């Protein structure tokens, strides 16, 4: 098991107050269909990932958000945490970017760091701007690690998820905040 950037961890309690609990959700965009899913437990999340990864055509970049259950943002919506990832099930590689906005209004950004890099795979964290948002090969982790980190992101207490190593990124460099 990897370890996150210890000096830059953000606990879920350091996000914003969530008296009604947290909601982890995802938007998965396929050709001709967009699915919005709310994850109620780890089993449901893993079933959703397994189903999505078993399809012959993968979706656009999955976009996940973590927010308080009774969240009513004022102005443009910036959820307390966002996770975007891409994968290639056939080649067993994946990568992710995690953004977090803490209670003080600071934005933190991380990108996975792994040893599964391949030059013959192109992964992106923004389907609408793929040329500008390619994951570098040094960010590639395995699909099993991706499944674990998505589960930890949705239901764990620490961000970024400790399932893998992460590198600190500048939020502006991510480009879709």
Key features?
two-stranded antiparallel sheet; 9 strands; alpha+beta; 3 helices; seven-stranded antiparallel β-sheet; 177 residues
Task: Outline the structure in words.
The chain has 177 residues and is an alpha+beta fold. It has one domain (6-174). It is 17% helix and 31% strand. It is built from three helices and nine strands; from the N terminus they run βββαββββαββα. The protein has helices spanning 42-54, 143-155, 171-174; strands at residues 10-11, 22-30, 33-39, 63-68, 81-88, 93-101, 107-113, 158-159, 165-169. The strands form two sheets. Strands 3-2-4-5-6-7-9 form a seven-stranded antiparallel sheet. A hairpin with a 4-residue loop joins strand 5 and strand 6 (93-101). Helix 1 (42-54) runs antiparallel to helix 2 (143-155). It starts with 9 loop residues before the first strand and ends with a helix.
Q: Which structural class do you get from the secondary structure elements? A: alpha+beta
Query: What's the β-strand tally?
Result: 9
Radius of gyration: 15 Å
User: How many structural domains?
Assistant: 1
Largest sheet: 7 strands, antiparallel
Q: Assembly state here? A: single chain
Uncertain ranges: 1-6
């Amino acid at each position: 098991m990897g370890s996150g950037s210890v000096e830059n961890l953000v606990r879920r309690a350091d996000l914003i107050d969530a008296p009604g609990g947290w909601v982890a959700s995802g938007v998965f965009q396929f050709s001709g269909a967009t699915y919005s899913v709310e994850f109620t437990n780890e089993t449901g999340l893993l079933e959703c990932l397994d189903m999505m990864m078993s399809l012959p055509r993968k979706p656009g970049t999955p976009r996940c958000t973590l927010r308080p259950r009774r969240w009513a943002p004022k102005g443009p919506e910036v959820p307390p945490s966002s996770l975007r990832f891409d994968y290639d099930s056939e080649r067993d590689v994946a990568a992710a970017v995690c953004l977090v906005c803490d209670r003080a209004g600071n934005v933190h950004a991380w990108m996975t760091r792994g040893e599964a890099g391949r030059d013959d795979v192109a992964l992106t964290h923004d389907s609408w701007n793929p040329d500008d948002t390619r994951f570098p090969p040094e960010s590639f982790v395995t699909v099993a690690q991706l499944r674990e980190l998505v589960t930890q992101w949705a239901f764990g207490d620490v961000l970024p998820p400790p399932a893998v190593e992460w590198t600190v990124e500048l939020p502006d460099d991510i480009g879709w905040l």
